[in-house]
Structure formats: C-alpha cells, structure tokens
Amino acid sequence: MKTTGILLFRNDLRLSDNATLTAACAEVDRLICIYCCEPISASTALHRPQTLSDHRQRFLFESLEALDQGLRGFGQHLLVLKRPIVDTIAELITQYDVTHVYSSVNAGWFENHQWSVLKSRYSSIIFQQEHTHTLFEPHQLPFEIEDLPSSFSKFRRVVEKNLQASPIAGKVTKMPPNPIVAKEYWQVPHYDELSSPLCSGGEKAAKYHLEKYFSSDLPSTYKNTRNGLEGMDYSTKFSPWLSNGSLSAKTIVSKLIEYETHKTANESTYWIYFELLWREYFQWYAHHHGKTLFQFKGLRPTVPNTSFYAERYQKWCQGNTPFAIINAFMKQLVATGYMSNRGRQLVASCFVHELNLDWRYGARFMEQHLIDFDVASNWGNWQYLAGVGADPRGHRQFDLKKQAALHDPKGEFTAKWQGSPITINLDSVDIADWPL
Ligand SMILES: Cc1cc2nc3c(=O)[nH]c(=O)nc-3n(C[C@H](O)[C@H](O)[C@H](O)COP(=O)(O)OP(=O)(O)OC[C@H]3O[C@@H](n4cnc5c(N)ncnc54)[C@H](O)[C@@H]3O)c2cc1C
C-alpha cells in the first residue's frame, strides 16, 4: 500500500535545515504540504489577537510564497488554507488515506494542544515531530525540561560549556509528489499602503541578509551597537526570519563560527551567541511552562497589582502617553512591524509600571504587530518584564527619562517618530465611563 503524508508547516517555512521536511520526503510515497492561516477565536486562545497587522500578514505571505516557489522547484507545492488546522487535517486524512502526519515541534501551548487532539483522534496514523526551531534537542540538554533552570544565567552556564548545536539537517534532493493538483488556492495580498517595511519575507531574503551581515564587519561591533533604536545595522535583524523559520538558529550559529574562524572572534561575536541563547532559553521555558506562559500571575503565587484600563491601553497603543520616547517606539512599531530590543523593554516597563496595565494586553498587542513575533520570546519576555517570569530580581522598572537621555540623547529618534507627548492626563474620563 502506498503511504501518504501530510506536512503541516508552521514556524519552519524553509527547505534547508528542516528535519521535518527531510523526514517526510524520505518516508512517504505521496506528500501533501499545507499551511493553515487559521482564525484564532477568543474562546480557544484568550489574550491572543484575533487579527494580525498588515505588516505581519505581509511578511508571512511573502514567506509562504517563497516556500511555495521553493517546493515547486521539486515538483511540489504548498496549499495555504484559511481554515482551522484540526478540521483541515481531519478532512485531508479522510479524503487521501493519510498514513503519516509531520510537523515541527512548537513551543506554543495552543499549538501543542491541537497536535495532541489530532494524535488522540487518529491512533492508527503515525504522527511525527522534529525539532527545527531550537539549537538543541531535549535529549542533548543536561536536564529534563521539567527541571529547566529557573533563570537564564543558570541555563547559560550549563549549556554553553557542554553543548554544541545539533547538526544541520540533510539537504532534500527529491520530494514525493503531491496528490492534490496545484491550483491558485491563495494569493499574496498586496499591501501598497505600507509605509516602510523593514525587510521581505522568505528563505531567499533570509539567506541574502545572513550572507550580507556576516560578510560585513558588523558582527565584530555588535555588543557596542546592539542597543540602537533605528536602522538595519545596530543589531543582526535575524529575528523576523527566525520567528517563522525562514532561517534556522543553527544556520546562524554555523555562520557565526565561520566568521569567528576566518575573520574575528571577540566579545561582540560571542554576544550574538549569548542573545541566541536567550532565545533558546525562552523556547524551553515555553515548553516547560505551557499554559502558564499566558497566565496573569505567571510563575508567581499571586496576581500582580495591575489591571486593564481601556483609555490608558489605547493611549499606549497609539503612542499618546505622557512619555515622548514611548510614543515614538509605539509609532515605529505600528508603522514598520518592528521595534528594537531596547524599545520593547521600555514600552513594556512603561505599560506595567507607569500605566499599571495588565501585561497580557501589551503582549497581545505586540503579537498582533511584530513581524518577528515568536510565542516563546514575546510572552516570555513580557512575563520577565512584568515581574512574573524568569527574572530572579522579580521587578525591573526602567527610568524612562534616563533611558531617553542615554539612548536618544539628541532626541532624533523621538522627533523622527513624532513622539512628543500629546497627552498629559492619562485618564480623561472616569475609568468606569470609558466605552469598551
Ligand atoms: C517585551 C519584549 C517582547 C519581545 N518579543 C519578541 C518576539 O516576539 N520575537 C522575538 O524574536 N524576540 C522578541 N523579543 C526579544 C528581542 O527584542 C528581539 O529578539 C530582538 O529585538 C530582535 O532583533 P534582532 O534580531 O536584531 O536582535 P539581536 O540583538 O541581533 O539578537 C540576535 C538574536 O538573538 C535573539 N534575542 C535577542 N534578544 C532576545 C531576547 N531578549 N529574548 C529572546 N531572544 C532574543 C533573537 O532571536 C535575535 O534575532 C522581545 C523582547 C521584549 C523585551
């Protein structure tokens, strides 16, 4: 009997270093490659946005289009369906006598829940997942995921001395045919109005950027420039491609090692690795803490002393707070789909500590807008800054005035994004009277 597989692409939108794709191509006679843009309903994923910003959608669709083009080079193609994942896979299983379902391991609780539902519903089908989003695999880690170190520093100490990233997955040379005829199932929407997209989606664009970055001298000054606020050069800008898997973390590390071997190895090049370890920590943190990643009290025994104030929240989203630099960051985010790490730290600190808002609404807004949204990095960092996550200090409030003076001393960034505070009063009407 012929075997038929479904490959559910999620945050692994690439052909190279994709162990899931390699396994599927080696094991089945026919292969259906799909991606589901599923509507997220409030009942299934509370505090997750129900719509994505135009920038996020554009970046995603460009990445999917690039993946489809890559697959077509092997006689395959990608079906992009605007339908719920579980229903779609269930229908395909019935229609095409599916024997195998493949997907990459995902750090999100919701995504894992869907996988478990499918697995339990179809016990005679082989469900297989590979690790494509992290540097390491669980069997390499010197602890069980349940015993993940409680802070990043402890994690780093254990990991960086003892471990090497697992090898890059073998190249796919041949793909099984797709039993579903290629049609124009989907079209990349055109977002002509987008003001200034930071970068284009897809594996080709990712590789181009990777090569360009490591053929420049930027890696050897990264540590000194990484707190910049504007432009492509002060930090690596790998995150948009990393987040949807157009680029793998292992590929970046192998390029970094090449750079260190042939060009320069210094504190800055080490610091790129150090930041990738932060990413790695948050991935395993999300795996370990599951649903808790989205809970108000996070890892703490009691809920924070913050709440949801509609007017303050709206002012923060629109860049209309009493803090000029915060307004600039928020306008930058909405206009481009990206914000620097420093910006993210400051707007999150402002959200929680100055505006006393429930951190989950801030995390959700970033999820809606960031082209590099990653469930583990976003929600893990928000928990950290809200003092309910992996920060051993438990409280991290930035002095916004000092930070503005340090990182935007001439006010150029603030002026560019028209950050000047429009509002002095945070609450113009009584909170109870604000229309929701
Ligand atoms: C509130 C908040 C929300 C965030 N949300 C996201 C998110 O949704 N997606 C995302 O990829 N990052 C997120 N980050 C982390 C960080 O801000 C971005 O990874 C970084 O700004 C991306 O730009 P870059 O690639 O130029 O980073 P670089 O400074 O060049 O760092 C290199 C890589 O290291 C990783 N990295 C760096 N800092 C962090 C960090 N603090 N946590 C996890 N990984 C890190 C990223 O993969 C990044 O691409 C968030 C940080 C904060 C404070």
Q: Which band does the percent of strand residues land in?
A: 5-15%
Tally of DSSP helical segments: 17
List the domain count as a whole number. Answer: 3
From the alpha carbons, calculate the radius of gyration and give it in angstroms: 22 Å
Rounded mean pLDDT score: 92
- CATH homologous superfamily (4th level) name of the largest domain: HUPs
In summary, what is this structure?
The chain has helices spanning 19-27, 54-72, 85-96, 109-121, 152-162, 203-214, 222-225, 239-244, 249-262, 267-289, 310-318, 324-336, 341-354, 359-369, 375-386, 400-407, 412-416, and strands spanning 4-8, 30-36, 78-81, 100-104, 126-130.
Describe this structure as you would to a colleague:
With 436 residues, the protein is mainly alpha-helical. The model has no long low-confidence stretch (mean pLDDT 92). It has a 5-stranded parallel sheet, sandwiched between helices. The protein is globular and about 70 Å long. It is 45% helix and 6% strand. It has helices at residues 19-27, 54-72, 85-96, 109-121, 152-162, 203-214, 222-225, 239-244, 249-262, 267-289, 310-318, 324-336, 341-354, 359-369, 375-386, 400-407, 412-416, and strands at residues 4-8, 30-36, 78-81, 100-104, 126-130. The longest helix has 23 residues, at 267-289.
